[in-house]
Amino acid sequence: MDKAIVTNEQYVCTACGFNMIGFYPKRCRFCGATRDHFLTREECSAKFKVESTPVNSQITRLNSVPQLGIEHAAYWIETGEKRVWIDCPSSFDRNVQPVDLILFTHNDLGDGHDGV
Fold first, then answer.
1. In 7-90, which residue ranges form alpha helices assigned H by DSSP?
2. pLDDT at 73
3. Which alpha helices (H) appear in 1-116, and where do they start and end?
4. Given this model, what pLDDT does residue 60 score?
5. Residue 10 in contact with residue 19, Cβ under 8 Å?
6. Is the peptide bond before 66 cis (omega within 30 degrees of 0)?
7. What share of the chain in percent tops pLDDT 90?
8. pTM check: above 0.85
């Protein structure tokens, strides 16, 4: 099996919205789409933005606009001490403020270097 290319670039799969940071596999390890479905961080930032929708005073829903693949909502939580994301928006939007911690709800997909 061919290995994924290790890189400093970030990619997003337009089929499902999965972020690939530091590797460039032949197929998306989440949905199996081929590389022709991947955008670089810069390409993605030019086409998509993150829209924030308040849920309450501490929680904000984050979605890519327009919708990116089969993306699900991510959530930004203000704890008073830290900013936390539950999952992350699929698009790369430099206007979104940095957070202290990102917690993912999906299963571990490995180290990203298996070429899947």
1. 41-47
2. 82
3. 41-47
4. 93
5. yes
6. yes
7. 28
8. no
